Amino acid sequence: MKSTELNALTEQFPLLSELTALNETTWFNPGATSLAEGLPHVGLTEQDVKEAHARLARFAPYLAKAFPETAATGGIIESELAAIPAMQKRLEKENGQTVCGKLWLKKDSHLPISGSIKARGGIYEVLTHAEKLAIEAGLLSLEDDYSQLLSPELREFFSRYSIAVGSTGNLGLSIGIISARIGFRVTVHMSADAREWKKAKLRSHGVEVVEYAEDYGVAVEQGRKAAEADANCFFIDDENSRTLFLGYAVAGQRLKDQFSRQAITVDEQHPLFVYLPCGVGGGPGGVAFGLKLAFGDHVHCIFAEPTHSPCMLLGVYTGLHDALSVQDIGIDNLTAADGLAVGRASGFVGRAMQRLLDGFYTVDDQTLYNMLGWLAEEENIRLEPSALAGMAGPQRVCATASYHEMQGFSARQLNNAMHLVWATGGGMVPEAEMAQYLAKAR
Ligand SMILES: *Cc1c(COP(=O)(O)O)cnc(C)c1O
C-alpha cells in the first residue's frame, strides 16, 4: 500500500498507528451485540454443532483404540481445566494491576494426539472426510462400530486417497498424524516459521513434509495448488473451512459440562471471560461460537494476537477483513508465536463472528516469553509462546473502564468473574526447545 493510502486509512482508523508502531494495543468492539442479534450472521447453527458432537461420538471407539492415550476418556479428545492462583498473583505483582475475579487455564496445550488446539478442528475435519468416503463406498454405516476403520481393508481403501494442508506447524501436526493413522497419503506444506521438531515428528509418522521459505499464506496457496492437480486429493482449507470451525465449536458444550461437574457457576452475576490466541481465526472463532451457544450472553470472548501479526484485529476493526493484510500496512508478520504468524485473517471467521466478540488485543513477543517463564515457575505448566497470548487479556479487561461501561458491568460482577485463558499449545515441545523458550523469559 502506498504511504498516502496508508495515511488516509490511518486517519479513518486511528488505531492503525498503534498497530504499525508495533505497540501492544487493545480494542474493545463497539459492534458487539447479543447472541440473539449476532447468531443469524454466523451462517452456522446449533444443529451443526450438535452434528459435530454426534460425529465425534461415533468416532470415539475408533480413537480410543487408534490412540490409546485417549482411552481413559473413552476416545473423546478433551482437555483439563486448571485454576492458576499462583500465576494470578505473579501477574498482579509483575504488572501492578489486579485481576478482578479468578484466573483459570484451559489446557488444550495438553490435548492428546497433537498437543494443541488443532487436535480439535484438524482431527475433526479428517474424520469427517474419512467417514464420507467410507459411507459413499458402502464400507461403513452410521450405526457401525467405527473401530473397524482400523481393519487392513479400510486402511487399504483410504490409501487410495490423499490429504493436503498448509500450516505453520500445529495444524500440520494434527492433520498429518490422524491422516497417516487412518491410512491416507498426506502432505503437509509448512511455512518458514514452522519448528524443525514438528517437521521431524511428522516425517516419523510417514507424512510427506514440503518446506517453504515463505510464510503461512504461501504454504497454503502451494498446498491448494498441489491438491487441485489430483482429484483424489482433499485440501484442508484452514482459511475457509466450516468443518474445522465446527470441530472447534464442540468445546463450548464440553466446557459447560466440565463446569457443572466442578460446580462452577456462569450466569449474569458470574460472567465468564475467555481469552483466545488467534492466528487465521478458525480455532478461536470456532471455540467462541461454541462458547456463545453454550453460555449465551454470559460469556465474553476476546482474541489475542502478536504485535507483529494482528490480522484479525486489523480485519474486524477496519471492516476490510481478508482484503487487508498486516504486510499491506507495513507489518512484517515475524513472531516467535509461530502458531499465530498469520498476516491475513480468514474472511469467513471475521465476518461470521465479529458481532459475537467483545475485543481484540496484541501482545509483544517478549511479553509472551515472560509469561511463559512465570507460568512454568508458579504453576509448573509449560506452554509454547503462542499459547501465552491469552494470558495478557484479564488485566486488559480489568483495567479498561470504558469497556465495563460499554457492557454495563458492575464492580460486583467483575469481582465474581472467571477469566479463562485458552492455552492452545505446547504439550509436545521437546525439552531442549522448551529450555530455549524458558531462557528468554525475564
Ligand atoms: C493454530 C494455533 C492457534 C490459532 O488458531 P487459528 O485457527 O490459526 O486462529 C493458536 N495457538 C496455537 C498454539 C496454534 O497452533
From TrEMBL:
It holds the Pfam family PALP. PROSITE patterns: DEHYDRATASE_SER_THR. Residues 95-394 form the Tryptophan synthase beta chain-like PALP domain. The keyword Lyase applies. Its cofactor is pyridoxal 5'-phosphate. GO terms for biological process: D-serine catabolic process; isoleucine biosynthetic process. It is an enzyme of class 4 (lyase). Its EC number is 4.3.1.18. The modification N6-(pyridoxal phosphate)lysine is found at K118. GO terms for molecular function: D-serine ammonia-lyase activity; hydro-lyase activity; pyridoxal phosphate binding. InterPro entries: D_Ser_am_lyase, Ser/Thr_Dehydratase, Ser/Thr_deHydtase_PyrdxlP-BS, TrpB-like_PALP, TrpB-like_PALP_sf. It catalyses: D-serine = pyruvate + NH4(+). Keywords: Lyase, Pyridoxal phosphate. Belongs to the serine/threonine dehydratase family. DsdA subfamily. PANTHER family: D-SERINE DEHYDRATASE, THREONINE DEHYDRATASE, MITOCHONDRIAL-RELATED. Monomer. This is D-serine dehydratase. It comes from Cedecea neteri. The lineage of its organism: Bacteria, Pseudomonadati, Pseudomonadota, Gammaproteobacteria, Enterobacterales.
